[in-house]
Every structure is written in structure tokens, then in C-alpha cells.
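C-alpha cells for chain A. Residues wanted.
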């Protein structure tokens, strides 16, 4: 079940909100949210839920063992982290590892290893990282071990952020597990944010996906250079609106329940360097790797050589975290290499250059890297990028004529403008200059927002009812 499904919108979410309104005490709300999250997760398979429950039990017991046995805290912490990572490695990377081992052994004529295809539990990358966050925070003494199993289960399994983030570090949300406000104001703000995210997902990302998927489904040799560039640019917008839209929905759902989740995006395509890009893209993932991997490895405190190595390790694992494929690894290493190049002195050159050139450099690098993220194989990605820079074939390929309809032009223009702070700026201007101090105008703004939310929800549902294309890129991570 995904947030952009009719079952979730008109059955699951309304029932949860209704039951939550009957529970006035936080412990009861936690229990309801925990059970609802297990049901949400079980929608994809009961066996997946058992894996999730096993993760919660391991982390609950380990967290208390770390706190209650200070002389052996490092041992308990190490064992618990190994268990978390072992589960992730087995379900997500076992087939990938076996496939690569078989490639090597075939060179020496050794019989291949046969391993049945292992299905990937939905969201395992996210809840594994959250479990490790809890253990690390307890180990460092930032928080006390959770003695209430339901509270910890609610943190790890909370369905708004279970399958696509944001990745919430335990110390950020720990106070909210025992004290938060389930109010009409939070409900209103949450619904507003959720509808905004739903529109970004259904009305923009899904429409862009039709173009990107059509282009990437074709052999690079059969498309023009202009079409290849269009495919890469459209995919860059698609993945942004797909993931940012889902993050908006998660943050909105959290607000409905009284939680305040951290922001996950900050107009990443306005970045002026790759370092700046990672301060704006998937912010919670960057923060997780920084706090729980980069800094423990030594960060930039042990000399330049060690800093560059740490960056490569972080971005190698960032790529691998996104998927068990060499395309993701190369994507991560490309970003790692660019981070190192900037630290070698290129960042100082960027700072002295004309700002539009900095934007152009960053966008060019990010878009080219996205090709490797999107491609099904390294060969396809390399050939596709080669086609982009061949500058041959004239204009757009003939099959692109279908996408010249007004709908796609409108979606494209809105997508480009929405990737900038323009709409936020217009909203702030309206709120401060028109509505400030004017009760009548404030009511007008309130009702116009309400009408806008209803309209967005209605139009989005029309696309869903008619069986509109509804993929979700991060669902496999």
C-alpha cells in the first residue's frame, strides 16, 4: 500500500484518524499507531511484518542491554548493529553478491552458486537505519534506552516514514513519543502538506514518468541526442517530485498525528556545488551518514587523505544503500569523486565564478549522474550518456510528438517553476502583505486554501480512478 492509492486515501487513513480522535492519551495513541503501522506493512506481506517485528525486538533488547550493562556496552552495541546490517545485507544484497561471485568463479571454471531470488522487504533500508540510530544514540548516552516496547515500535515502524523516509534519528523524535499534540490545527496543517505532496506525486511526477520511462525504454542508438537530453532532464524532475512529494505526504501525515518530522528537501536544483546539493537533497539521509558514519570514521579531522577516503566510503555506501546494482554504486562514486574534486580546490574556483555558471556545473553533473541511477545496466548508462554528448540526430525523435500535447507543456512549466522558491515566495507575499492584520482576508485565504486542497485531492483521485500511471521510484529501497 502506498499513500497515493485509493485504499489508503479513502479507507486506511480515515479509519486511523477516526480511531486516533477517540484516544486522548498518548500511550493509547502510540498503541494505535503501532498496530496501524504493522497492518499497513502487512499489506505487502505478513512475512515482511515478522521481519520488521524481529528488528524491533532485537533493538529493544539490545538498547536496554547497552544501558544496563555498561562494562559490556560496546559488545552489545556491536552485536546489535551486526544483526541489523546482517538482515539488510541478506534480504537486499544476497542475490547481488552471489551474482558477482558467480561472475568471478566462472573465469576459473568453478560451478556457480545457486540462490533462489530473495524478495526485498519494503522499507527495510529505512527502518534498519532508524534502528541503528536508536542504538547509537543510546550507546553515546544522548538518550536513555526505551523501556516501553510500544514506544520504540512506534518509532521504528511508524507508517508515514516507514517506506520512504524521512529517516528520523531517534534523539530527534524521542520526546514526541511521550508528549505531542493531536489537535485540529495540526490536522489542518498536516492535510494541507499531504495534499501538496500528493499533487507533486500524482499530477507532476507521474506525468513526467510517462516521458522519462518511454525514452529510457528505447535503445540509445535509436534516439537523437536531443531526446536523450530530454529524457535525462525529465527524469531529474521526476525523481525530485516523486521523492519530495512522498516526503511531503509523510511529513503531513506525521503532523496530523502530532509529530514534527524534519524536512527532507530544500530546492536541491538551486545548488551551486555538489556539496551544496547534498545539503539540499535527501537531507535526512545525508545527516544520518554524517553523524553515524562520516564523523565516526574521522570526518575531516585526520588529514586530507583520510578525509577523501572517508568521503569515498560514505558515497560508495550511499549508492549501495539505494540499490543492489553497480549502477547505484557508480552513481554514488560519481558524487563522491565530485565532492573530493571540490575539496581539492575546485570549490574555491567555483566561489570566484559567476553564479549561473556554478548552477550550470552542478545541474550538469547531477543530471549526468542521474542517468546511471535510472539505467538498468552500466553498459546502457554509458551508451546513453555518450548519446547525450554526441550531439547527433537533429531534433527530438519522432515518437516524442505524442508528448507535445498541452498537458505535458503545462506540467513541464509547473515542474520547472516548482523546483524554485517562486511559489513559496508568492505564498509568503500573499500571507504577509494581503492577509496580515485583516481578519476578512485571513478567512478568505483560509477558505481558498481549503478549496485548493479539495480540488487537488479531487483531480489526483480522478487520475487514480482512471488507472493513471502511478509508479514510485523509492518503493524498492
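Reply:
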Amino acid at each position: 500500500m502506498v499513500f497515493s492509492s485509493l485504499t489508503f486515501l479513502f479507507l486506511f487513513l480515515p479509519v486511523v484518524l477516526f480511531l486516533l480522535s477517540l484516544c486522548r492519551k498518548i500511550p493509547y495513541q502510540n498503541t494505535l499507531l503501532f498496530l496501524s503501522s504493522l497492518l499497513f506493512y502487512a499489506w505487502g506481506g505478513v512475512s515482511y511484518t515478522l521481519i520488521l517485528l524481529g528488528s524491533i525486538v532485537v533493538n529493544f533488547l539490545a538498547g536496554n542491554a547497552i544501558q544496563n550493562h555498561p562494562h559490556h556496552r560496546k559488545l552489545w552495541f556491536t552485536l546489535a548493529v551486526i544483526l541489523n546490517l546482517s538482515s539488510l545485507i541478506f534480504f537486499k544484497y544476497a542475490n547481488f553478491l552471489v551474482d558477482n561471485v558467480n561472475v568471478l568463479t566462472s573465469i576459473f571454471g568453478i560451478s556457480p552458486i545457486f540462490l533462489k531470488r530473495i524478495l526485498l522487504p519494503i522499507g527495510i533500508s529505512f527502518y534498519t537505519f532508524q534502528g541503528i540510530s536508536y542504538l547509537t544514540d543510546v550507546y553515546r548516552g544522548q538518550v536513555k534506552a526505551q523501556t516501553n516496547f510500544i514506544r520504540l515500535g512506534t518509532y521504528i515502524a511508524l507508517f508515514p516514514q516507514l517506506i520512504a523516509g524521512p529517516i528520523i534519528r531517534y534523539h530527534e523524535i524521542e520526546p514526541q513519543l511521550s508528549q505531542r499534540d493531536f489537535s485540529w490545527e495540526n490536522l489542518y496543517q498536516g492535510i494541507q502538506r499531504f495534499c501538496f505532496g500528493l499533487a507533486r506525486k500524482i499530477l507532476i511526477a507521474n506525468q513526467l514518468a510517462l516521458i522519462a520511462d518511454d525514452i529510457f525504454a528505447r535503445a540509445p542508438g535509436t534516439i537523437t541526442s536531443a531526446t536523450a537530453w530530454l529524457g535525462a532532464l525529465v527524469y531529474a524532475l521526476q525523481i525530485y517530485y516523486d521523492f519530495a512529494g512522498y516526503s511531503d505526504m509523510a511529513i503531513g501525515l506525521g503532523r496530523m498525528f502530532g509529530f514534527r518530522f524534519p524536512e527532507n528537501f530544500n530546492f536541491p536544483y538551486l545548488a551551486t556545488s555538489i556539496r551544496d546539493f547534498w545539503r539540499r537533497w535527501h537531507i535526512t539521509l545525508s545527516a544520518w551518514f554524517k553523524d553515524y558514519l562520516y564523523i565516526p570514521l574521522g570526518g575531516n579531522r585526520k588529514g586530507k587523505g583520510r578525509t577523501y577516503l572517508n568521503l569515498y566510503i560514505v558515497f560508495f555506501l550511499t549508492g549501495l544503500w539505494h540499490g543492489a546494482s553497480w549502477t547505484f554504486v557508480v552513481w554514488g562514486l560519481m558524487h563522491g569523486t565530485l565532492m573530493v574534486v571540490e575539496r581539492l580546490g575546485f570549490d574555491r574556483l567555483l566561489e570566484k565564478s559567476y553564479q549561473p555558471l556554478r548552477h550550470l556545473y552542478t545541474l550538469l553533473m547531477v543530471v549526468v549522474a542521474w542517468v546511471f541511477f535510472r539505467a538498468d545496466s552500466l553498459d546502457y548508462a554509458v551508451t546513453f550518456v555518450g548519446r547525450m554528448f554526441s550531439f547527433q540526430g537533429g531534433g527530438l525523435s519522432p515518437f516524442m510528438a505524442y508528448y507535445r500535447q498541452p498537458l505535458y507543456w503545462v506540467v513541464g512549466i509547473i515542474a520547472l517553476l516548482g523546483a524554485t522558491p517562486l511559489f513559496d515566495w508568492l505564498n509568503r507575499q500573499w500571507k504577509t502583505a494581503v492577509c496580515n492584520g485583516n481578519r476578512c482576508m485571513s478567512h478568505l485565504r483560509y477558505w481558498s486554501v481549503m478549496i485548493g486542497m479539495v480540488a487537488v485531492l479531487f483531480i489526483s483521485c480522478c487520475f487514480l480512478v482512471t488507472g493513471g500511471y502511478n509508479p514510485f521510484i523509492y518503493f524498492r529501497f
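Residues 20 and 32 are 7 Å apart (CA to CA). The chain has two domains: 6-180, 186-404.
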